[in-house]
Amino acid sequence: MNSRLRGSEPSSSPASRAAGVYGWDILLESRVLHMPEADTTDYGALAAVYRHVGENFKVGVGYNFGRFSDDLRDLTLNDERVFLNMVGKF
Description:
The protein has 90 residues and is mainly beta. It has one domain (9-88). Helices cover 0% and strands 56% of the residues. It has strands spanning 9-10, 15-21, 24-35, 40-52, 57-64, 81-88. Strands 1, 2, 3, 4, 5 and 6 form a six-stranded antiparallel β-sheet that branches.
């Protein structure tokens, strides 16, 4: 295990989703990253809108309002940005 990650305790992310309204989904999510070894706690939020394309695919765009990524290996704290997400369902 990477020593930089030891002690990281990501909390569960409360999320709200509005699904299937005329083929659109909306996601609102809050995030907390607590790292006791570094004596820091970072807070963030994420918002996204998805459009269903057929029955098995959706594409979305959103914004990460927090400085950290959901990839806990990435500790650069520079992840506030727009993102594109594509989801296939089987």
